[in-house]
Design brief:
This protein is an alpha+beta fold and 221 residues long. It is built from eight helices and ten strands.
Length: 221
């Protein structure tokens, strides 16, 4: 995995990097430094092969979470960088928190949030560029909350004519949902094609019930 250490970067630097296949990370939540990453193998979720288990399908259909888009983007990032039972540290440092908050204000970064009893139970955030969505991080405080958020994201991307859902790396959690690895050359082809698409993250209604989400996931254009 290629890393390039950086000085202070801007939101414009990040958008340019994504178009070339790079993304920024930090060594820890308290680190002052940021570096570019270009993995040899890239994790993606093919939008037509998202895996819905029977139990996940049931939770989505029963609307056990209220799913919101961009209700609290910075709060989502803070939850993703906070210590958790499966993650003592985080690559989201203050500089990255600031940059992505700016990208959100510019309309490029979005969060998909699962709420329960007026508290954020889980979710994810990432960056949109044309027909590509670059997933950055996710968390769950309630079982399957991040999976439900990911299902809502997949539905939104399919209806919005997206061509790429980038997960950066492949984890067992993501693999169970249909994620696979592709090499740099194959990824670049997928990325270039997605960047040519006319896509709309908000084509799907902001508040959809579970049945609509399930139908949208099986949608074929």
């Amino acid at each position: 995995m290629r890393k390039e250490k950086l000085p202070q970067i801007t939101p414009q630097d990040v958008l340019k990097a994504y178009r070339l296949g790079y993304f920024p990370m930090s060594e820890s939540r308290d680190s002052e430094d940021v570096f570019w990453v270009l993995p040899e193998e890239r994790g993606i979720i093919p939008l037509n092969h998202f895996h819905l288990s029977r139990s996940l399908r049931k939770k989505i259909k029963n609307n056990i979470f209220r799913v919101e888009i961009n209700r609290d983007f910075t709060g989502m990032m803070e939850m993703c960088r906070a210590p958790a039972t499966d993650r003592e540290d985080s690559w989201i440092n203050p500089q990255i928190l600031n940059i992505y908050s700016q990208l959100h204000a510019m309309g490029h970064a979005h969060s998909v949030e699962c709420w329960q009893d007026n508290e954020m139970a889980g979710g994810l955030y990432g960056v949109c560029l044309n027909g590509a969505f670059f997933g950055e991080s996710m968390f769950s405080r309630v079982t399957d909350a991040s999976k439900v958020a990911l299902a809502h994201l997949v539905a939104r991307l399919k209806i919005g004519n997206f061509g790429l859902l980038d997960t950066q790396f492949l984890t067992p959690h993501l693999a169970s949902l249909g994620a696979v690895e592709v090499g740099k050359a194959a990824y670049k082809k997928l990325l270039d094609a997605a960047l040519q698409r006319d896509s709309d993250f908000f084509r799907l209604s902001l508040h959809c019930d579970g049945s609509t989400i399930l139908q949208s996931i099986t949608h074929t254009s």
